Amino acid sequence: MSEGTLYDKVWDRHTVTRLPTGQDQLFVGLHLIHEVTSPQAFGMLQERDLEVAYPDLTHATVDHIVPTSSKERPYTDDAAEEMMAELEANVRESGIEFSHPDTGEQGIVHVIGPEQGLTQPGTTIVCGDSHTSTHGAFGALAFGIGTSQIRDVLATGTIAMEKQKVRKIEVTGELGDSVEAKDIILEIIRRLGTEGGVGYVYEYAGEAIENLDMEGRMSICNMSIEGGARAGYINPDETTYEWLEGRDRVPEGEAFEERKKYWESVRSDDDAEYDDVVTIDASELEPVVTWGTTPGQGVGVTEPIPEPESLADDKVETARRAQKHMRVEPGETMEGYPIDVAFLGSCTNARLPDLRRAARLVKGRTVDPNVRAMVVPGSQQVKKAAEEEGLDEIFIEAGFDWRGAGCSMCLGMNEDQLEGDEACASSSNRNFVGRQGSKDGRTVLMNPRMVVAAAINGAVTDVRTMKEVTINE
Amino acid sequence: MSDEVTIPSVESVSGTGVAIRGNDIDTDQIIPARFMKVVTFDGLGEFAFFDQRFTDDDSQKEHPLNEPAHQDASVMVTNANFGCGSSREHAPQALMRWGIDAFIGESFAEIFAGNCLALGMPTLEADTETVETLQSWVEANPDGEIDIDVANETVTYDGKTVDVTVDDAQRKALVEGVWDTTALMKANAEAVRETAESLPYVEDGKRV
Prior knowledge:
The structure holds two protein chains of two kinds.
Chain A (H helix, E strand, L loop, with lengths): L5 H9 E4 L5 E4 L2 E4 L5 H9 L10 E4 L16 H17 L2 E3 L9 H7 L8 E4 L13 E4 L2 H10 L1 E4 L3 E8 L8 H12 L7 E6 L1 H4 L3 H9 L8 E3 L4 H7 L8 H13 L10 E6 L6 E3 L7 E3 L12 H14 L14 E4 L7 H11 L9 E4 L4 H9 L2 H8 L2 E2 L20 E4 L15 E4 L2 H10 L16
Parallel strand pairs in A: 3-4, 3-6, 4-5, 6-7, 9-10, 9-12, 10-11, 15-16, 15-18, 16-17, 18-19
Antiparallel strand pairs in A: 1-2, 2-8, 13-14
Chain B lengths: L11 E9 L6 H4 L19 H4 L21 E4 L11 H9 L3 E4 L4 H9 L4 E3 L2 H13 L4 E5 L4 E4 L2 E4 L4 H8 L5 H6 L2 H10 L3 E2 L2 E2 L1
Parallel strand pairs in B: 1-2, 2-3, 3-4
Antiparallel strand pairs in B: 1-5, 5-6, 6-7, 8-9
């Protein structure tokens, strides 16, 4: 078993007791809730006549079903309105703070947590959403949970979990031009497999990780679950502390320096022991795109799509099915794959630096007339900050739809959906069949700049062949 | 009151089986997101594997869950990484409400297995050959009885008994009837408070 890692230290600090099942009862420092997975949990609480144990450590927002076209209530979709009303009632009755659309602080739960300083190093964070792993970018232990577990956390402030193994993923070297954090994580999942992380949490380390900004680190931790790992984290460092200082809910002045000592103390020791170590050379990477229907079915943009038979035995059938669905041929590259829709958004890649980088490429260009292109900022604050920099105008002038904050077309629970067999260049995290709202839809995952490059050219494009302009930021 | 919640032990599951073949079957396939626009889990059963089972005009496609012979199945036999993707408990809830009580597969995604445990449904694992043999048998014998012994980690069918594995904590939780952890953990409220107060970022149950 691992020893001296951040995972071990934060786990130990939060362990209440060992349960009769052999699981540990872990204290939860931050419980994030949203409208899709929490209503049933509140219902279960009512059935048992229980109250929320730690409302002040619970924080709500609305993201999955929220329309990105208008904030107007009631929502035109009755089901969405019912879910929103239910959440409003639940948080009101339990005294839970709610980043409601009216506050200007609403957004995707994994964007607003860090943004508001709720997400901090050395804490435990859970949410009824598998991409909760995102918060690990700050050196927090963050897990996605199911609704019955949400009930546990609401009722007790704790969760029953078994300790897992720790795999260190050392990403060495420097990233090449136009290769991003998203490409690192897509490559990790491609190499280790979609189930390779089952039983593990991932510690991302190494020069290429340390050189990333916090948003890049979030993109990586976000997709840990796509590699089967329930959590992923990065040791906090000066980049983390600088990003946090001055945010709401982060201690100030002396208290900040004091808290920093705690944050430093939970970093993995230099001589920490890991259950497994994997090394990846970042300098070898090129932009990665998916050719299939799992996030592990990725390939460098200039590399040939693999023959299913060349893959491991247990991947052959899945690959065949995926290639048929996507209508791609082994031996060809994804470059030039025609797309109908471009989606720049999601908890993986819809933060300000993502939008800035994309805008530099978009400026002075126009979206292909056959492409429906949209930018969905990760939060109202991201949207506001982007507008202050004039990024909205760049996108709109180029022909992008500039929308309100939410999960949107990542999973098609609002009106933003693929139609029929449309192909979508998407900065999101899942290319499962049906994921973006149409069972015949085709999703190609890629980094945000690759998404806008595809929007402009009407087809998957190697972004390295395109020049970008400088914008006065 | 919480005391009134009785948690049955799940030492065994018996019933007929249904095979769902394929690796990496994700929760978006098990229950498409559009069916999650609900505030209860009631009625989710009919939407299990909906897009695999029905065409655009709602007519039935060929799918094991559509076959009349499998309508009473309670044991789902699956391959590798079943239930990957989203944390939505709607997925096991939909399958449970369709009629499934237990899963036997090559491997399960962690959150999915955790969600199943929270509903008292075992997720038993076996090697590829064992699973594929069972899947073929289930397909040929839709009314054949499968007996799962959770405590002893065995599955008996067709007059033979094969070994399966169950995660230790899951086995204990199911067999001893402590898989619903709310009451169990609620009883430790004082220790929880102490742990909370020992953390530098919590004071009086609030964030500091």
